[in-house]
Amino acid sequence: MPFSHHSHSGQFCPGHARDSLEDVVMAAISKRMQVLAMTEHMPRHDQDRYPEEIDAGLTLASQFNNESSYFAEASRLREKYSQQIELPIGFEGEWIRPESADLVQRSIATHRYDFFIGSVHHVHTIPIDYDSKMYQQARQISGGSDGKLFEDYFDAQLAMLKALKPPVVGHLDLIRLKSDNPNGSFKAMPEVWQRILRNLDYISSYGGTLEINTAGLRKGMNEPYPKLEICQAALKRKLQFCLSDDSHGVDHVATNYDRLLPFLDEAGITSLTYIRRGGVSQGKVDSRFPYLDAEDVALSELRSHIFWNSLETPVH
């Protein structure tokens, strides 16, 4: 699949990713990808900094400056490589506390983004995908079990969905990454499964797109985000899907895409959506983003794309 709607670079996400943004773009071009959405992390409040960001003296003010530099460079790259690849400019939103919405709205109002990804990386303001120690801290606050933490995670996700209505919902079941059984079935936890279905219903109600994210495979799980059972439930709700590698450097671009076709076939997914920057006069996907456009493509059509030639040697 020659699309990714989720990427990061070391240039604008230091300590968390690698390589310049332009190098990431060039890696996507070299693999004959059609779309690489640039989606660096949005600014976060000072109390929400990661340990390495505290050590580096990162502040909210410096993050605002970084965001401006990112948008300027992304705009330059979009123009420079416009004949070779679609480069929508977005960001990955955060939901840590209700005040997080203020920062998302500031980003939308300050820069002419094409879209954004709505993600949850924190529960009880604690990162749940950073390391096992922090995951366990969040789990203890929830009551000491994965199931209770999962419930709180999907409740936080619903709050994010209602407040922000993100055009793309990122790695919907990220919460399983550091859990005791990351490959287990959510259906075995009825209270959790009910929340997942509730959230899918809400995404469907406002027309959001669900991201299928191969980072889960890169991190040792046997399915991408979200799991097969969630994709099948989403299909029943007529949800659309887009693809992402969640790359954090050139070596992540299109990783594990060779494993996607069997997964999509098993899920019953026959078409995918991809984002492009359309003309302002075209039909709007989201009124906040006047240039946002989306198109569907049949999986049968994608199978013949030249992109697959770049994956003759699978990368895991």
Automatic annotation (TrEMBL):
The keyword Amino-acid biosynthesis applies. Residues 5-215 form the PHP domain. Gene3D superfamilies: Metal-dependent hydrolases (3.20.20.140). Pathway: Amino-acid biosynthesis; L-histidine biosynthesis; L-histidine from 5-phospho-alpha-D-ribose 1-diphosphate: step 8/9. InterPro entries: Histidinol_P_phosphatase_HisJ, PHP_dom, Pol/histidinol_Pase-like. Keywords: Amino-acid biosynthesis, Histidine biosynthesis, Hydrolase. Its EC number is 3.1.3.15. It catalyses: L-histidinol phosphate + H2O = L-histidinol + phosphate. Coiled coil: none annotated. The keyword Aminoacyl-tRNA synthetase does not apply. Pfam families: PHP (PF02811). It comes from the Eukaryota. Belongs to the PHP hydrolase family. HisK subfamily. This is Histidinol-phosphatase. It comes from Exophiala sideris. The lineage of its organism: Eukaryota, Fungi, Dikarya, Ascomycota, Pezizomycotina.
